[in-house]
Write a structure and sequence with these properties.
80% helix, cell membrane, membrane, Flippase-like domain-containing protein, mainly alpha, 293 residues
């Protein structure tokens, strides 16, 4: 049994060691460009609720929150609290206001996720893409008409409780058309970069997967993260991603190698960077103060 495990581990390591460093570097780059875009989006939403904060502090808060998300159960349970406390201390923004901004960000993410889901569905369809385009347009129109219902549905999906006052502030943001357009564009760009990162990691092993297939994998990755109850989704995301890749015909050794590199970028390295930010930017004191409340 042990010999079999050792042989498998050696096989996977030999495959991982063949990965192109150029593509791996680009995968890292796309990840941290996404973090900066998250910071810009957060800054815009804060301005929408009448507050402002330095972009540098917002990016730091996001990086530190990634570490907290990765070490606390139920993805984002610790990170979002840290983000609220961070901007409260660094930019004097009330926690209620920062909570509304963070919740609204997550709601806006639902729109590009819906679009990504449609792209993924095209992978299973041999017909014309027009029906999916029409469905996408119809979905956006329905979201706009039934905005309050869409907000409440998004909050249930992301398991995010809100007060009635926060709900009123969130729904009031609908009238800020330019803010919503830019924020949705930034959210869409972030999810596109997520797909690009998976593509680059596959290319690192010489595997040129179709964009629609990568969209399917990205959606599956998201779903595994939502249902995961372990810190950072450890075990659940890896197992789900390997299972999805092998289900679609990717050899086991390649599936494991792609998963290991993806999680190294999005979990291991991001946790180390987030910890470094937490330790060097006063994050430990903020977290201690938050836990004492």
């Amino acid at each position: 049994m042990l010999e079999s495990l050792a042989t498998s581990a050696q096989q996977y390591f030999s495959v991982v060691s063949t990965a192109s460093l150029r593509y791996l570097f680009l995968a890292f780059l796309t990840y941290y460009v996404s973090v900066v875009l998250y910071g810009i989006r957060w800054k815009l939403v804060l301005k929408g609720v009448g507050r402002d904060a330095p972009l540098r502090e917002l990016v730091k808060a996001i990086l530190a929150s990634i570490f907290m998300n990765n070490v606390t159960p139920m993805s984002r349970s610790g990170g979002e609290l840290l983000r609220m406390a961070w901007v409260s201390k660094k930019a004097n923004i009330p926690t209620g206001v920062s909570a509304v901004s963070i919740i609204y960000e997550r709601i806006l993410e639902t729109i590009p996720i819906f679009a990504l889901f449609l792209v993924g569905m095209m992978y299973f369809s041999s017909g014309e893409p027009l029906p999916f385009i029409v469905l996408g347009i119809a979905g956006v129109i329905l979201i706009w008409i039934k905005w309050d219902a869409f907000v409440r549905l998004s909050l249930r999906i992301f398991r995010t409780p809100v007060t009635e006052d926060e709900m009123r502030k969130i729904t009031a943001l609908r009238s800020m058309h330019s803010l919503n357009m830019v924020a949705v564009l930034l959210s869409s760009t972030v999810w596109l970069l997520d797909v690009v990162r998976l593509k680059l990691i596959a290319l690192a092993f010489g595997l040129n997967l179709a964009w629609s297939f990568i969209a399917v994998i990205s959606i599956a990755n998201l779903l595994f993260g939502l249902v995961a109850f372990t810190p950072g989704g450890v075990g659940i995301i890896e197992g789900g991603l390997v299972g999805t890749l092998t289900y679609f015909g990717i050899p086991m050794a390649l599936a494991v190698s792609i998963t290991l590199l993806e999680r190294f970028v999005s979990y291991v390295a991001s946790s180390l960077v987030g910890l470094a930010v937490l330790l060097t930017s006063g994050g430990v004191e903020i977290w201690k103060a938050l836990r004492s409340q």
